[in-house]
Amino acid sequence: MAKRLQPLPTDEALRRANRITSLLAKDTWFALRARAALHTANDVISQKSYDRPSRFADTYNVVQNSMALTVALAVARLFDVSDPNRYPVEQQDKASIPVLANLLMRHDVQHALVAKARDWHPQLTGGAELGEATCSEALSTAFALYETHTKSTDHQDAFSRLRKFRTSRLAHHLFDDLPTDLPRFDDLDLLANFAQDFVRATVLAVEGSDRDLGHEEELKSRIDRAFWDTALSAIFAAAD
User: Fold this and answer.
1) Which of 41, 45, 59, 223 is most buried per CB count within 10 Å?
2) What is the DSSP string of the chain?
């Protein structure tokens, strides 16, 4: 049963929403950067036929597994939340999607954000109304995305598998648990893509800026691909 705590005052709830939004954007961008590095490495390996035996293969496998674990930990942290039956989600001290979503669902927080958004475009005629509309639409998008995530069997199963892996293999190594494989790439992609979209909507609603992390990841992937092309070509040339 959740502890009975006094509701957060509006000012504190708003402070937390602002703080978490900023941290969550940074954490999501870290996860996407790590994912881009991992995926482009795998793409170059398969497309360039770098699957022949090499004395450097084990070293590369260590690097690849380390990147996969980094992505898994980074994505899992975005959804970190304690048992809501023991501690109300909105009062947890985690910079995560569930905590932010619960804070933004408060009507007083929404009203405060919309009021603040009236000052986003002081130089424009009708700027106050534009700010209000943009903020309200972004909040609606964030809520729709979060509802889809919480009600989707695929999303919840993916999170359940990732959380179990994090608990039994990353944060701890529980000796009575059966050994588990590395996290599934499709689980990581599903959750990371949702986080990317949710963060874009919440950053727009809270800060008034359109942070398109998907586009930023595309640009990052081009650089990563060039890196792996150069690195792997040199590695296999040296091994020949």
Assistant:
1) 41
2) -----PPPPHHHHHHHHHHHHHHHHHHHHHHHHHHHHHHHHHHHHHHTT--S--TTHHHHHHHHHHHHHHHHHHHHHHT----TTTS-GGGS---SHHHHHHHHTSHHHHHHHHHHHTTS-TTSTTHHHHHHHHHHHHHHHHHHHHHHHHH-HHHHHHHHHHHHHIIIIIS---TTSPP-PSPPHHHHHHHHHHHHHHHHHHHHHHHS----HHHHHHHHHHHHHHHHHHHHHHHHHHH-
**What's the longest Cα–Cα distance across the chain?**
68
Structure tokens at 56: 């450097």
How is the chain split into domains, by residue range?
A: 10-239
Note whether 90 and 99 are within 8 A (CB). yes
Distance CA 4, CA 26 (A): 32
61 phi, psi to nearest 5 deg: -60, -35
**What are 153-198's pLDDT values in tens digits?**
999 999 999 988 887 776 655 566 655 666 789 999 999 999 999 9
pLDDT of residue 133: 96
Model confidence pTM above 0.85: yes
Average pLDDT over the chain, rounded to whole?
A: 90
The two structure tokens encoding residue 167: 């608990």
Quick one: pLDDT at residue 236? 76
Are 18 and 24 spatial neighbours (Cβ–Cβ below 8 Å)? no
